[in-house]
Amino acid sequence: MRLALHLLQQPKESVEEFTTSIGKMRQKIQFCKEGHNISDDDKCSICNNASRDKSTICIVESIRDIMAIEDTAHYRGLYHILGGVISPIEGIGPSDLNVSTLIERAGRAETKEIIMALSPTIEGDTTIFYLSKQLQAHDVKVSTIARGVSFGGELQYADEVTLGRSISARIPYGK
Question: Which of 53, 88, 112, 136 could cross-link with 77 by S-S, CB 3.0 to 4.6 Å?
């Protein structure tokens, strides 16, 4: 509604330029053949970047997750967008996700580690479990991102699952 109201206040020429640009974007943007990221070529800029670590692949649900991880500047590997998570309630099964291309990538000699960076939900955990079983046939390390109480958070407000995982996945404190 805000966009429509804003466009109504703009000169017709500006709105026509805007709509033409949106149309061109939709025609030219495609999905990367490797990791399913958005791209204007067969491979996205991340997959084509020679300085990226080709031995690690971070599995995410969506393009927004890539953007969030890239904003941290702590990861220099490749990505693989699943396009969601397994959710029987919503009718989403493994065949609805980009699983086959992930399994193919995991079979390549250069792939050493698969990092599961999926939402900490029942559906996310189900997907991680399913994918880890599918990846057992390949010689790759499968890991998940750390989960726990956020920095600055208070224990009394953390849910039981998060707090329990934080206790179970505790790490040694410096020496």
Answer: 53
